[in-house]
Write a structure and sequence with these properties.
alpha+beta, 382 residues
């Protein structure tokens, strides 16, 4: 009798397997397996129970993401990325690309030429006179003119090799360019390189009495390397061609206008151009030549600091994709003091500096006192 009683008690206490399965299925139904697996991973990292993670997924993921980043180390190793995140509005559109931003900053910071000295300057001049970026850019441009981006595997492989060689040629020249501390010294060096590279054209212009050969060579010397540079940094054929034509046209137009129409204009503007040319001092000098005495010259360009690097390079090119990657070279950004010095050397008086800012959320530009990124500099010719 007791055995029957014990069996009945055991049957009562032991749950029915079918009923247990029913309860488990009902409790789990509606929970995404992927979401639960992610919740368990967050639980292991933070100690927050998986059920709490599922109940408050956004808050739990935020805490897990914040806790996984050493922001102190980030500020030391990638200060421009840290500055980008410090701006809440821009952090909202960039926080999910943190790894790429850090990688881009690390890569870009690694490019630095030798310490300026007589030997490094001489070596840089010698490397520039090999015209490697020019030759590589011309070859790539001719290939693209005939075959475009390539419709067959053979065309695509050939173009990829030419793009690689153009990038290598530019990188080699950059590697041998001395790392000057000031934009003024860098501009003087670039001016020296430009003069040496354009000597054949200058000689032809002197012999023929026609400025066309000199201007043509100056345009080619600027446009061809620019084409290879933009292509090697991921620009499409159209983007590379547009950038190269703009650089070449600027070089020709400023020099030709200054020679043909000195002291002609009441107002001369040079907007968002100086950071793209190899010799900004020559452009400033050409603008000063073009304006009448008492006339106004306005420049706009990018300041050189961590904030401008974070917003104009990392933000605009790598996060918002407003510009092709490689459009800007941080070393060519100009501090207001450096641009002001160039203007005074060209015979201009600096009148005013105004900052420009852009909100990527509202897509609104504003003028104000903040000149840490974009700024306008107004000058007058005495």
């Amino acid at each position: 009798m007791s055995d029957d009683f014990d069996a009945a008690v055991a049957a009562t206490l032991q749950p029915d397997p079918g009923q247990s399965a029913r309860v488990g299925f009902a409790a789990a139904y509606g929970v995404s397996p992927d979401a639960y697996a992610e919740a368990k991973r967050i639980e292991r990292r933070t100690g927050i129970p998986a059920d709490s993670v599922l109940a408050n997924p956004i808050e739990a993921k935020r805490e897990a993401a914040v806790g996984s980043i050493d922001f102190g180390a980030l500020a030391k190793t990638a200060p421009a990325t840290a500055a980008l995140l410090a701006d809440v509005e821009r952090a909202k559109v960039s926080h999910d690309d943190l790894d790429n931003l850090q990688g881009a900053e690390t890569t870009l910071k690694a490019w630095k030429g030798p310490t300026p000295s007589f030997s490094s300057v001489a070596s840089g001049f010698a490397e520039a006179l090999k015209f490697k970026p020019l030759v590589a850019g011309v070859r790539l441009a001719m290939n693209d003119l005939m075959f475009g981006a390539g419709t067959t595997p053979e065309d695509q492989v050939r173009r990829a090799d030419l793009v690689r060689k153009a990038g290598q040629a530019q990188a080699q020249q950059d590697y041998t360019t001395p790392a000057f501390e000031s934009a003024t010294a860098a501009g003087a060096y670039s001016g020296g390189v430009s003069i040496l590279q354009n000597l054949p054209g200058l000689a032809a212009s002197i012999v023929t009495g026609n400025p066309a050969p000199g201007l043509a060579l100056a345009g080619i010397n600027s446009a061809a390397p620019a084409y290879g540079k933009y292509a090697s940094r991921g620009a499409t054929v159209g983007e590379a061609a547009g950038g190269a034509l703009a650089v070449g046209a600027v070089e020709i137009a400023t020099e030709a206008l200054a020679a043909e129409a000195p002291g002609t204009f009441d107002v001369v503007t040079c907007m968002e151009m100086l950071e793209h040319v190899p010799d900004p001092q020559s452009v400033v000098r050409a603008c000063a030549t073009l304006v009448k005495p008492g006339g106004t010259v306005c420049f706009s360009t990018l300041n050189r600091n961590l904030k401008s690097y974070a917003l104009a390079v990392l933000g605009a090119e790598y996060v918002l994709n407003m510009l092709p990657r490689g459009t800007h070279e941080y070393a060519r950004f100009l501090k207001p003091s450096e641009l002001g010095r160039m203007a005074r050397h060209a015979g201009l008086d600096v009148c005013d500096i105004t900052g420009m800012s852009y909100n990527p959320i509202s897509q609104v530009y504003r003028l104000g006192e903040d000149s840490q990124v974009n700024y306008l500099l107004a000058c007058q010719r005495p």
